[in-house]
Design brief:
mainly alpha, four-stranded mixed β-sheet, 54% helix, 15 helices, globular, two-stranded antiparallel sheet
């Protein structure tokens, strides 16, 4: 495990700080090996576009070797093209939902990217679409147009376009393992859904969440993924920009609500990471930073990479049976008992409940094929 100081002084982190305007230059010219390290970590954390932006702000004497410049420029161009495609697809899927009488809102990616200095340089994955109506109603209407994949408590997947762009259709933006906390969270989503679905962006062609909503939702999204899969710095940077664009009242309300969900230890750790790594000012934090848990959280992020793809303890190893994967998942989850005790305790109970719930949903265990499922 790397020390926090080593991570904070790493060439990659320096370049990210330059990209967001927190630093004017590197501590000194980097060697070719150091630039190769930057490229490697940028791939692991899905942040080559951000590194390209940082590189473009460097003084002449600190620019990387020609090979690294060309690589970053080429990858950044691909990222920008993919982002434009996803923006177009998000607008198209919004129209499709409207045509079958369903309101929708694009979560995360294409919406949060608008907070970045250059939105097209943020790496994006699938399109996450929150659709109003509840699981059964949404499934019934969508299945008249295209096939759905496995159905989970909060979402399913569809591929309505010829290019196989994956759309994650959310019945609920996210969830909590502890049932009482989840009920409170779902009531929160219900209370503010009209504002989110009506927050239509003419230039984009779809609705996106408000900052007040994202102060809560994006933190819980990070919380969910760090517990079960791992998460990268890209999502932490998303939250940095959300907090930078939030008001004091929005932050205070978000902190109080998430504290009621039992997330105070995690929030302290998260605030330490964004303050120490992205140099977020104290006035924009949700709560006091927690140094001990924050250093633990950052080590997990840096070691495991985007969505845990570089985690040696990953639960996705080929050849493992269901029991072995469940055991590895719980082994990983138990390491977070200090910052998320109730979520760790309730995780196996929720998993069993979710499986039984899925048995009541027709086609819940049907997986999408690789090819397009458009009818």
């Amino acid at each position: 495990m790397q020390s926090f100081e080593d991570i904070r002084q790493h060439p990659f982190i320096q370049l990210v700080q330059i990209a967001i305007g927190k630093k004017s230059g590197l501590d000194g010219p980097f060697t070719e090996d150091q630039w190769n390290q930057i490229m490697s970590i940028a791939r692991q954390q899905s942040m080559p576009g951000i590194c390209f932006q940082g590189m473009m702000a460097l003084p002449e004497d600190q620019l990387p070797p020609k090979k690294s410049k060309i690589q970053l420029a080429y990858v950044s161009e691909l990222i920008a093209k993919k982002n434009q495609i996803l923006i177009d697809r998000a607008a198209e899927i919004t129209k499709m939902m409207q045509s079958i009488g369903l309101r929708s809102c694009v979560l995360k990616g294409q919406g949060v990217a608008m907070l970045y200095p250059n939105p097209l340089l943020r790496c994006s994955g699938d399109i996450d679409l929150w659709v109003d109506g509840g699981c059964r109603k949404v499934l019934k209407r969508i299945r008249k147009r295209c096939k759905t994949g496995e159905v989970f408590y909060h979402h399913t997947a569809i591929k309505p376009f010829a290019d196989n762009t994956v759309i994650e259709v959310h019945f609920r933006p996210t969830w909590m393992n502890r049932f009482s906390a989840d009920r409170r969270l779902q009531r929160f989503f219900e209370s503010c859904k009209d504002t989110q679905f009506s927050n239509f962006q003419e230039k984009l062609g779809f609705s996106k969440p408000t900052i007040a909503f994202d102060c809560v939702y994006s933190a819980i999204h990070i919380y969910r993924h760090i517990l079960f899969e791992g998460i990268g710095l890209r999502q932490i940077m998303d939250y940095y920009f959300i907090l930078m664009n939030s008001s004091r009242e929005e932050r205070e309300k978000a902190a109080a609500f998430m504290d009621s969900l039992g997330m105070h230890k995690f929030l302290g750790a998260l605030m330490y990471v964004v303050s120490e790594l992205f140099l977020l000012e104290e006035g924009h934090l949700l709560c006091a930073p927690d140094k001990q848990n924050g250093e633990f959280l950052l080590s997990e992020i840096m070691e495991n990479g985007e969505f845990g793809h570089y985690d040696n303890k990953t639960t996705r190893r080929k050849g493992n049976n269901l029991f072995a994967r469940a055991r590895m998942r719980m082994s990983r989850l138990s390491t977070f008992s200090k910052i998320a005790p109730s979520e760790v305790f309730w995780a196996p109970i929720f998993k069993v409940w979710q499986y039984l719930w899925r048995l009541t949903i027709p086609g819940a265990f049907t997986k999408l094929k690789k090819e397009s499922q458009t009818r």
